[in-house]
Fold this sequence. Notes:
Layout: H1 9-21, H2 73-80, E1 105-109, H3 116-119, H4 125-137, E2 145-149, H5 162-179, E3 183-187, H6 189-196, H7 200-203, E4 208-211, E5 216-217, E6 224-230, H8 233-238, H9 243-254
Parallel strand pairs: 1-2, 1-3, 3-6
Antiparallel strand pairs: 4-5, 4-6
Helix pairs in contact: 5-6
Amino acid sequence: MGAYQTIDPALAASALEWWHDAGVDLIVGDDPFDWLATPTDEAFAPMPGLALVTLPASPAAIAPAPAALPDTLEAFATWRMGPEAPEQGWTGISLAASGPADAAVMILVDCPDRDDGQAGQLLSGAPGRLFDRMLAAIGLSRDAVHIAAVCARRPAAGRMPRELETRLGEVSRHHVGLVAPKRLLLLGNAASRAILGTEMGQARGILHRLNHRTGTEGSTGEQDTGVVASFHPRFLLEKPVAKAEAWRDLQLLMKDIGA
Length: 259
C-alpha cells in the first residue's frame, strides 16, 4: 500500500458514529479478555436502570389449538369436506369417504390417486379395478365396505406432508372410531403410520388389535377392531410379484371375522 492515502472524512465519521451507537467506547482495554470463554449470565445482565422487556409472540406464530372433532359420522363427513379440514389449503378437490356407516370392513388408503378426482371416488382407474378384484376374492364389494383416505385431497408431491402427519393420523383414528368396523385394512405406508404408527412393511403379517374408541392398540372386546396392513393396489400393479403376499394379508383380514 502507498504511504499516502486519501481518507474520506465523511466515511470515517459515519463509521465512528456507527460504533458509538453500537456501544463501543474503547478500542483497547487494559485488562485481557478471553474471547473463547463461554458467556455467563452476567454478560447479558441489563444496564443499571434498565429492565428487560419480553415482547409478546406474534399472533401468526401462535398456532390455534385444533377444534374438537365431530362426534357423529354425518357431522364428521361434513367437517372433513369443509374449510377446517387439515388439507383444505391444498390444490385440487376433496374426495369424501364412501360405503355403509356400519360396515364390518373399513379400507383406509393414503390419498386420492391422480385419476380419482375425475372419477369422483377413491380407488378408481387401474388400481381401482385391481382393488375390486381383491374384494371379490374375499367375498366383498365396494357396496359392503367403508372406504376413506388419510388425506382427503392429493398432496402436491403425492405424499403426506410430515408436518401434518400427526393431525391427519388423529383425524383418521377418529374416523375409524365413528365407523367402529370389525376389520380395518390399511393400504400403503401412510395409512399404516396414521393408525399403527409404523411402516407397512413392519406391520404386515400381524392382526393388530385396535380399540377404535381410544385409538390405542392391544384392546379386546366390543370396542376391538382387527387391523391388517398391506400393499396399495398401485404398488401391486408395479410389482405383481407381491400379489401372493397381498393375498395372505386379505386372508388374515377375514380370519374369524364372524367370531
